[in-house]
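Trying the structure run again after the queue cleared.
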Amino acid sequence: MIRAAALALVLGLGAGQGLAEVPEPPGYRMDEYRGPVPETLAGATVIDPEQAHALWQAGGAVFVDVMPRAPKPPNLPDGTIWRDPPRLSIPGAIWLPNVGYGEIAEVTHGYFRDGLDRATGGDLARPLVFFCLDECWMSWNAAKRALEYGHARVYWFPEGTDGWTFLALPLERAAPEPGEPGAQ
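Done. Tokens:
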């Protein structure tokens, strides 16, 4: 019996039983940004790693990494040199850290809008692909926000760099786009 149950799990029999579908919230996700995400985002196209790779290979779409920047620990001893952990991202992507929180300051809205405007040349119809990590609400929030800013072709890639690396696709070290609020 245990073997049959284990085999059923491995083969995916009964998949979805006991797993609740995550609904889209009416607004932004405000906390617990790592966890199961919805399968949809109203107004956006949800893509999987293969589709993201096809868009990347075709060119034309702007890939937008919204992974938040790791905060500097508050209790470092005097004289300690802080180095930001490296962010490995999809080659050619722009990195706009901290724009995927549920509530962002007006200066962060400006940074986000300016970054998207520079990357698209002001073309609201240029495709944008938003990503972070697998099961990260930051990309969902950022894609939703871009739709509210008037961008017409928004793609949400919920598996992010985790899904990208699962396909053994390349990553490169990313640097935040200039003008990041609070950057030192």
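The chain is about 30% helix and 10% strand. Worth checking whether this holds up in the mutant runs.
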